[in-house]
Amino acid sequence: MTGDPEPTRPHADIRAVVFRLYDRVVELITLGVIPLMLIALGFAFITAVISTLGMFPILHGQAPDESALRVLVEHVLDVVILIELFNTFMEYARTRHIRLTNLLDVTIVFALRETLIQLYAQVFSAPDLLTLCVLVIGLVVARSLTSLGREPGPKR
Fold first, then answer.
1. What is the Cα–Cα distance from 110 to 127, expressed in whole angstroms?
2. I want to staple 72 with a disulfide (CB 3.0 to 4.6 A). Which of 51, 79, 95, 123 is the partner?
3. pTM (predicted TM-score)
4. In terms of Cα–Cα distance, which of 95, 96, 134, 88 is closest to 115?
5. What own/partner pairs with CB < 8 Å and gap ≥ 24 does 131-135 have?
6. Contact indicator for 93, 99 with CB cutoff of 8 Å
7. Are 102 and 91 in contact (CB under 8 A)?
8. Cβ of 133: how many Cβ atoms within 10 Å?
9. How many angstroms separate the CA atoms of 138 and 146, rounded?
10. Where does the chain have alpha helices with state H?
11. The dihedral formed by the CA atoms of 52, 56, 60 and 61, expressed in degrees to the nearest 10
């Protein structure tokens, strides 16, 4: 070795360019999804507000029925699910990592939503309800196991 410059490897240069391009494209898509999420969350919130307004008997001249209340509960739970899902995405946007605990949180909220809707509507069968309850218990146990050993601190 006489101090000759190391030969350049064109494959390494192309690879680095491709990875940088990929990172930039993912960053742009991530930034583009955030306003879409805010719009979706806004529409879900407006839908919940409209459902709430539909519950007032003065506006319709009649008493609210149970189906309107069920729809209101579904819309409010939808907003909660979207918030949890978007929090998971925002953490990914900030850190480029998705924690299993966050995904389990979203799944637990979704399973609880389905359980509550079925219970409230009284349209469940015993096996379906039992299955959802076992699923929720399993998810909560998995969530508890994933958070073992983590330092307590602020979630977000």
1. 18
2. 51
3. 0.69
4. 134
5. 135/111
6. no
7. yes
8. 13
9. 12
10. 10-53, 57-60, 66-95, 100-121, 126-146
11. 170
**Residue 92 to residue 77: CA distance in whole angstroms:** 23
- In angstroms, how far is the first alpha carbon of the chain from the final one? 54
Burial 104-118 (b: 16+ CB within 10 A, else e): bbbbbbbbbbebeee
Distance in angstroms (rounded) separating the CA atoms of residues 88 and 82: 10
In whole angstroms, give the CA distance from residue 144 to residue 155. Answer: 14
Task: Give the gyration radius of the chain's Cα atoms.
Answer: 24
Residue 36 has which token pair? Answer: 């879409």
Please, are residues 80 and 109 in contact by the beta-carbon 8 Å criterion? yes
Residue 59 has pLDDT above 90, yes or no: no
Residue carrying the six token digits 């900030």: 94
Residue 149 gets the label, from left (phi > 0), alpha (psi -120 to 50) or beta, of: left
In the chain, what is the greatest distance between 2 CA atoms, to the nearest angstrom? 95
Mean pLDDT confidence for 15-23: 92
What is the per-residue pLDDT for 67?
74
